[in-house]
């Protein structure tokens, strides 16, 4: 099937001979093995003689600046970019034409994911393999990852192991009180959990956030009160 697909020609679209692109999406919670799976597929494409390039978001400063790194330390050199539109420009037009396969890690951080994938696969004939979080710590759709599902050839949803009971984990629980959507971190900030422990964990975290918030309000109102004259 793969051999048939890669020989399909798009020459009728713009007169130039190009092969059809592909889009493969890997989603799941943190620690599910998304980056591991992306690296395995990219390495395998490279071993099959295809020109590969890897991109990650420059927001991800966790383990290395210019490498994609898994939680257990596997590494692959990459372009760390603020957006995907800058990829072709960084690489140069000639080098971009020669790339067959593009891996994208931490896809939730790229706002221009949809437009980039459309152009690269539909027009430029690239195979794109994307790894990212489908949901944030509140299980809301994260970035543009779900928007590219209708464009995809394949979608793989991976699971991790619940850190509290060992069952399959579908969600990323944030262990700290921060409430912004984007918060870079690893096992210090997040843990993979099953549904039951996500629900329990959210109740505990919500209570902790409320306590912190009320302490903050109290100390602010005390600061506003003039000190008593003794
Ligand atoms: N709770 C955890 N804390 C730290 N490392 C973990 C944890 N659970 C799994 N791992 C390791 O992380 C690896 C997966 O890493 P990675 O591919 O980077 O995941 P993802 O990209 O989905 O976050 C697993 O093979 C395992 O060795
Ligand atoms: C759930 C959640 C995660 N993030 C951040 C934390 C990490 O830096 C990445 C995910 O990395 P991984 O390779 O999938 O382990 O995303 C965030 O910013 N907000 C969230 O809600």
Automatic annotation (TrEMBL):
<dbReference type="InterPro" id="IPR001267">
    <property type="entry name" value="Thymidine_kinase"/>
</dbReference>
<dbReference type="InterPro" id="IPR020633">
    <property type="entry name" value="Thymidine_kinase_CS"/>
</dbReference>
<protein>
    <recommendedName>
        <fullName>Thymidine kinase</fullName>
        <ecNumber>2.7.1.21</ecNumber>
    </recommendedName>
</protein>
<dbReference type="Pfam" id="PF00265">
    <property type="entry name" value="TK"/>
</dbReference>
<keyword id="KW-0067">ATP-binding</keyword>
<keyword id="KW-0418">Kinase</keyword>
<dbReference type="InterPro" id="IPR027417">
    <property type="entry name" value="P-loop_NTPase"/>
</dbReference>
<keyword id="KW-0237">DNA synthesis</keyword>
<comment type="similarity">
    <text>Belongs to the thymidine kinase family.</text>
</comment>
<keyword id="KW-0547">Nucleotide-binding</keyword>
<keyword id="KW-0808">Transferase</keyword>
